[in-house]
């Protein structure tokens, strides 16, 4: 029963905080619980992140498949300083996301803090939720920095 209450709270917070992804995810999980399909929750937990990353990657690659990005566009990226900065930013983001994935595998309960922190960022800072990987990656960096500074 406590799980359902938390999910309903997340739905409400997602709606108030204008985060349809959090609200939808909580709705889907609540539906799974209410129709007694809990046996699928371990599979969702184990494979959900991979499936989400697959769809995210698909959506990013659509412009290539649709022919919206041509060879000249790729050449332009490699010959301008904003292009080089974009390459650096993309590489840094994927590295940080990898560290976040490692952290989530080692300490899966940290997701509670990430979700609450994301909700705070959405509601009070008018932020945009980009998912738990980046939040976990930043957390992993902050954790290592904290350990380094605290000895």
Automatic annotation (TrEMBL):
The keyword Aminoacyl-tRNA synthetase does not apply. The keyword Transmembrane applies. Its main location: membrane. Keywords: Cell membrane, Membrane, Transmembrane, Transmembrane helix. One of its GO terms (cellular component) is plasma membrane. Belongs to the UPF0756 family. This is UPF0756 membrane protein IDH41_13215.
């Amino acid at each position: 029963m406590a799980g359902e209450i938390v999910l309903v709270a997340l739905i409400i917070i997602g709606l108030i905080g204008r985060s349809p992804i959090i609200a939808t995810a909580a709705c889907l999980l609540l539906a799974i619980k209410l129709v007694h399909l809990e046996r699928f929750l371990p599979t969702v937990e184990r494979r959900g992140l991979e499936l989400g990353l697959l769809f995210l990657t698909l959506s990013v690659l659509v412009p290539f498949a649709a022919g919206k990005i041509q060879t000249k566009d790729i050449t332009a990226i490699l010959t301008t300083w904003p292009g080089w900065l974009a390459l650096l930013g993309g590489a840094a983001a994927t590295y940080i996301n990898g560290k976040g994935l490692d952290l989530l595998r080692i300490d899966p309960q940290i997701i509670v803090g990430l979700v609450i922190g994301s909700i705070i960022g959405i509601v009070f800072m008018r932020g945009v939720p980009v998912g738990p990987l980046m939040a976990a990656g930043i957390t992993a960096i902050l954790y290592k920095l904290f350990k380094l500074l605290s000895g």
